[in-house]
Design brief:
Elements: E1 9-14, H1 21-32, H2 39-50, H3 58-75, E2 82-86, H4 93-102, E3 107-112, H5 119-138, E4 144-147, H6 155-169, E5 177-183, H7 187-191, H8 199-213, E6 223-228, H9 243-252, E7 258-261, H10 270-273, H11 275-287, E8 291-293, H12 301-318, H13 374-378
Amino acid sequence: MSSFKPYDAVLLLSFGGPESPDEVMPFLENVTRGRGIPRERLTEVAEHYGHFGGRSPINDENRLLLANLREQLAAAGVDAPVYWGNRNWAPFTVDALREAHEAGARRVLTVVTSAYPSYSGCRQYREDLAEALIELAHEGRTMRVDKIRHYFDQEGFLQPVADSITEGLGTLPAGSRVAFVTHSIPDAMDDASGPEGNAYTGTHREACAAVISRLGGASVPEWDLVYCSRSGPPSQPWLEPDIGPHLERLKAEGAPGVVVVPIGFVSDHMEVVFDLDTEAEEIARGLDLPFVRAATSGRAPAFAATLAALVVERAAAERGEDPDRPSFAGSGPWHDVCPANCCSNLRNPDKPAACGVDWVLPIDKAVAAPATRPSEVSR
């Protein structure tokens, strides 16, 4: 049996999404609070959810991942409760941690459903953890929360993607291309990602190269890293090219087909099922460009097994042991504890973020009232 000490519980932490049409707009207001996004833009995005009954697929994906993670942790000998919390919708992070505290947990290890370093993919989750810990401390509940390291370089994330690409290429004409897709972010956010900058694009390219190296067959397909889901004003530079213009370019270059790979996403949530399965596929169909969308890793048992292994690894490190730290992409495993100024918050650089070397529960410096809950902002 593997020891899980010094931790008492695991938190699966994700983005969140609406479960019914009447939740769509409040959810979008939560996601964009403080960013000055025009109401018209929120209405436009809300229409995307209308294509799917006003319900995001991310919640069912997380329920499956939660079940798989519990199974894989048990198989690894970890006898500990696993809770589920979200940044932007129920179950909220603070509620999940409160439930864990009431059950006796004082040290919690977090698994975030984002594989890469960036402000939105890492530090913003850490900021939400800090807000939750401050709120709980005002209630007299003190806890310590850590998180596992980034897993873009892990076999259980990479190999399922490679298997899906191989399957997709087998249905397309010879010489078809591979288009890896991730969520676009502002150029400035990429510049500030990681401890030294440009870690978001850098680790994506490392993951793409590692996936390509796992493909079977005699020839290696040409590939590109492109983006989707841009939401900023035209005046603000965001990572490009977008998947739509990229498909047009592939057609102009004579590509016989394309496998579109959502490498930046753990599971099939709205950016995948709308931006790729709906909009990008429609563009490809209009171009008469054969199109296959590869699967994400999140449903694969190997993916949950990878997360469980990283949970065991981190617990061993916290006990002062020297666990094996495998890495199958890039220059080696990422840090367990985020360095100071890693994936900086460009709008509010002094905002507390848990799970970092400079994090101390600032209850003595916090305002008298608890931090405002996202749900209280929008409802």
